[in-house]
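notes to self, project folder thing:

trying the whole complex as one job this time. last attempt i did each chain seperately and stitching them together was a nightmare. two parts in total, labels are on each line so i dont mix them up again. if this works i'll redo the older ones the same way
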Amino acid sequence: MEDGDFNINLTIVGLGLIGGSYAKAFKEKNKGHIWGIDIDKNTLKKAAEMDIIDDGYSIENAQIPLKKSDVVIISIYPEVLLNFVRNNLNNFKKGAIITDTLGIKEDNIKYIQNILGDKAEFIGGHPMAGKEVSGFLNASKDIFEDANYILTPTAKNKKETIDFMGEFVKSIGFKSIVEVTPEKHDEIIAFTSQLPHIIAVSLMNLSNCEDIKYFIGGSFRDTTRVAAINSDLWGQLFIRNKKNIIKCIDDFQKNMTEIRNYIEKEDINDIKKFLKEAASKKEEII
Amino acid sequence: MEDGDFNINLTIVGLGLIGGSYAKAFKEKNKGHIWGIDIDKNTLKKAAEMDIIDDGYSIENAQIPLKKSDVVIISIYPEVLLNFVRNNLNNFKKGAIITDTLGIKEDNIKYIQNILGDKAEFIGGHPMAGKEVSGFLNASKDIFEDANYILTPTAKNKKETIDFMGEFVKSIGFKSIVEVTPEKHDEIIAFTSQLPHIIAVSLMNLSNCEDIKYFIGGSFRDTTRVAAINSDLWGQLFIRNKKNIIKCIDDFQKNMTEIRNYIEKEDINDIKKFLKEAASKKEEII
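result (full assembly):
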């Protein structure tokens, strides 16, 4: 076993874009078994044929891999995540670490840690990786390379578990592992992820496709890159993080109105000040 | 001479990111002379050393290359563009084609065609290419590869001139050449270029850099890619296209408010409808 490799029995629940990418990535870095659980039999069959899972199971047979798994990564929609945990409360291996991949944390984690008690340990995880397309067929281990990973431990998590999770995901390419509370996570992610997605769809929906096709440059292309998001998943994320998202939208609109009014008044000095502030913040962050 | 090559005496006024990139690109495709005019002596020296111009001239000596040039590409800020043409009215070669690279057209073109009379022919051109950085040192001939080019002819332009310009810029990599009136150009570009830039700076300015650094994924990075724009140039562009830009900002904010309100009401069906509309428009355009 090479340095940095693991020997863990791992179950991945939901072999979509993120779950499928995890399977591909961990297949190379983890010497233990990797099992997949999915509602789609074809996906399970395909993943087994590609040898990125050892075996695939339906939701109804989840107990078979769960009982043997040291780590369970659940990568499914918010609504089904809670059901899955509730329905499998007695199927997790004693002491197993369970994590998720969702872009919202606070409510889920409270609920899950509560119903799990000491049957298993749940720790929230959010890989800041993705693609503008979804599904297993688009999964790729490369999406994690140099990406950020957010851990959202609570007082119920052990220090060893937090450390383990950081090392585990670093092994597949994540660069920065950062820890915040679930509350803070939801507040920041509303700004750094959900707001840019709302901007993308709002801009896209304003367009008259026929008219603008040949007038597009890099800025429009970039701003709308994520405009074709999975509406089931993101609809749920937006509603579940509504308090933070609405604050972000309102703050953003206030900022936009500021520069709008400078332009209306032809106030070149304030426009330039606004643009320079953006430029210097950009240098600082990215 | 290969098929598609030209043999034209060309002067490029302003060797910044766009002008410098033109010089590099045409040096390979045009067998005639290429001269550069710039206020920065170092840029002229560097461009001559790199052999992408045959000679460089200060603004004061503009008449030397202009008198011999079949084509003049003026790639400088809106305010100085008008001055440059006015100060060189009698320096253009009879029948020369003069074009620009600016993101606003209507007012400039009216003014320039008016004062030029039949001394030379001005035709507006807008290369939909750029980079998030400016200046000659960042110039590259690759930025035009597969990009869109917009021509904004008026009743004062000859058909041969329009055709020539299309062929001339195709030779350096542009893929789609599209023609619209200067008025329509300004209206569409406010939406496809200036609005995304305003979005980028407004989003960037909202951020508290320290807090968000490790919470950034692809969507935030993409939406703010162009946030460090040249404040002198873009400040002028925004003010000169103010009528169209303000309409775009207002329409965009109305759209954003629509999805904001669906989220507030937890109206999952309308959110999903909104997201699906964006996804299908995205498929259609990009």
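what i see at first glance: The two ends of chain A are 36 Å apart (CA to CA).
need to look closer tmrw
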